[in-house]
Amino acid sequence: MAAVEAVIEERMASATHSIPQTADYLVAAGGKRIRPLITVTAARMLGYEGAGHVSLAAAVEYIHSATLLHDDVVDESELRRGKAPANAVWGNAHSVLVGDFLFARSFMMMVDAGSMDALHVLSRAASVIAEGEVRQLAAVRNIDITRAEYMSIIDAKTAALFSAAAQVAPILHGSDKAVEDGLETYGRELGLAFQLVDDALDYGGMAAELGKNTGDDFREGKITLPVALALESADDTERAFWKRVISNGDQSDADFDEALAILTKHGALDATLEAARAHAANAVNALNVAPRNEWTEALAALPEFVVERAY
Amino acid sequence: MAAVEAVIEERMASATHSIPQTADYLVAAGGKRIRPLITVTAARMLGYEGAGHVSLAAAVEYIHSATLLHDDVVDESELRRGKAPANAVWGNAHSVLVGDFLFARSFMMMVDAGSMDALHVLSRAASVIAEGEVRQLAAVRNIDITRAEYMSIIDAKTAALFSAAAQVAPILHGSDKAVEDGLETYGRELGLAFQLVDDALDYGGMAAELGKNTGDDFREGKITLPVALALESADDTERAFWKRVISNGDQSDADFDEALAILTKHGALDATLEAARAHAANAVNALNVAPRNEWTEALAALPEFVVERAY
Fold first, then answer.
1. B219 or B182: whose pLDDT is higher?
2. What does the alpha-carbon distance between residue A104 and residue A83 come to, in Å, rounded to a whole number?
């Protein structure tokens, strides 16, 4: 991972003054690095001896950072519709372009790794992510989204990159198809678990105390699994509530507490985390086709770690 | 080019409803296809017998379309700062995501072509374009931008993709380095000529009658070569004028005519087109290292065609 960090830093360099600043804020200071960790750990587990996994791991993090920058533009649009301040708007233009820069650089790093098959998997993942984001955008404020539709959206929006991050390791190593498929499944299931935990955390997870980032989905009118589940069991009064706060975006300060109360009444946060645990278990099971060593143990521990975040 | 069109159409397909509509509007209905035409013609000129040039030509057009979509967001931000209507803002989010989709698909097409060297050239071009756009954004409303700084910005923003479009043909064909360098130069010089003609056309070119798209750069506060040249020769009154209309964005209906009069007084549109002609001639000269056949003639005719647009 130290080698990945070095590549991440090095490839942000640009003669264009403001790019390294913006990129640094996001890429260097930012993340938990869970996606590149999957690539590097899987490559080690398989006994891959080249250096390509470092470039691909860094490329995966760059794709993730690019989507975060572009998400800011997408989310801000929704949130601030009709009243964007000048600064936020100039920021939007910059976010779009620096995201494009990171995206382009990610492909340069993939070229460094030298595997056309890995390039195919990662470019397809990038395409699927964009499709997932468009579908999520179309689903905002729509209280008729079903659980199945929602799972399909996060499969594209979130799980595709986790899946690709895992799959490129056996591709680089030249593993059997069964191992490649197993790691693809591992990544996808871990990605689904990760997203569902995030969804629960946005409503405070299982902790009574709410963090300062809770409620973003609610305020932005995004339907996530907790709300989709609560809608499945909603009576007329509750449905009218969701329609007002989500579809119409008509929210007062007390509405988030009311939403939490309804979610709790239907056990929607419990059910979301139960679903996350099931996907995490699927991820661990998918490792059965892989060799057993200390790196396998590390990969098997990751889903548990992801789910534990919610408690 | 018919094969390129077929690939362009085919790769826009997506199960995500609104993507083909948006992409189609831009990619299928849109362009002059000058960039993919360079790739295809150069491959023919070199006697390349594979099919990779078709995928790369389509990929080049996708990159171009993705940057156009993202430019819309960037330009709109400037133009409508602080008063974005809801519809335009939702449009922004969609433009960002569909641009990302096209960008990702372009890399999938490059993988189809199977050349890692071509992938390197095109991914580097995409990175340089993003850097050029950021630099242009930073230069908006800045009347101290010099001619040299401006040429450096359009070298990145516009010429890099023309250059890459030409360079990938000899790479696919496996031509000598001298031929590859010659075509890279051809593309770059043609791209510079193309941009300078566009700059002149935004002030009506040499036609007295103004098209409905004239004045965009002026209204958006973008310094292009005509204005940079006029600023070099500006007296105090003129400098105060440019400062008011460009730097401060304080424009009335009569100001565009006033700008045109100042540009004409200094021969700035003539000088811009003279520079375009010089770059067009450089492009033709760069073909000296290439084989001579009917395709060479077609490539040599293209710069003239580009410059003629202005008259």
1. B182
2. 32
Which residues of chain B does A86 touch, with a Cβ-Cβ cutoff of 8 Å?
81-82
- The answer to which of A184-188, A198-202, B21-25, B70-74 has the lowest mean pLDDT is B21-25
pLDDT of residue A91: 78
Q: How many CA atoms lie within 13 A of B141 on its CB side?
A: 14
pLDDT given at position A9: 87
**pLDDT at site A30:** 58
**Residue in A214, A191, A220, A212 with CA at minimum distance from that of residue A269:** A214
How far B101 CA lies from chain A's nearest CA (Å)? 5
- Judge: A120–B134 Cβ closer than 8 Å, yes or no: no
- Residues near B208 by beta carbon (within 8 Å), at least 6 away in sequence: none
Q: Answer yes or no: do B94 and A131 touch at CB < 8 A.
A: no
Q: Closest partner residue to B137 among A86, A97, A138, by Cβ?
A: A97
- Contact at 8 Å (CB) between B94 and B22? yes
Provide mean pLDDT across the span A30-36: 84
Q: Do B97 and A17 touch (CB under 8 A)?
A: no
Number of domains chain B is built from: 1
- pLDDT score at A81: 37
**What is the tens place of the pLDDT at every residue in A280-307?**
999 999 999 999 999 999 999 999 999 9
- pLDDT in the model for residue B88: 55
Domain that holds residue A137: 2-308
Q: What is the DSSP string of B59-112?
A: HHHHHHHHHHHHHHHHHHHHHTTT---HHHHHHHHHHHHHHHHHHHHHHHHHHH
Euclidean distance between CA atoms A269 and A249, whole angstroms? 22
Q: Select from B74, B97, B123 the Cβ nearest to the Cβ of A130.
A: B97
Q: How far is B297 from chain A (nearest CA, A)?
A: 34
Contacts of A110 in chain B (CB under 8 A): 119, 123
Residues 6+ apart with CB under 8 A from A149: A139
Instruction: Give the per-residue pLDDT at A200.
Output: 94
CATH of the domain at B218: 1.10.600.10
**CA–CA min distance A247, chain B (Å):** 16
Among the partner residues A73, A101, A126, nearest to B127 by beta-carbon distance: A101
Contact call for A104 and B127, based on CB within 8 A: yes
> With contact defined as beta carbons under 8 Å apart, do B99 and A69 qualify?
no
Q: Which amino acid is at A141?
A: R
* Amino acid (one-letter) located at A66: A
Mutate to test the interface with A, among B94, B100, B105 (most CBs of A within 10 A): B100
A52-79 vs A86-113: helix crossing angle, rounded to 10: 160
Cα dihedral A6→A12→A13→A15 (10° resolution)? 180
Residues of B in contact with A123 (CB under 8 A): 104-105, 107-108, 110-111
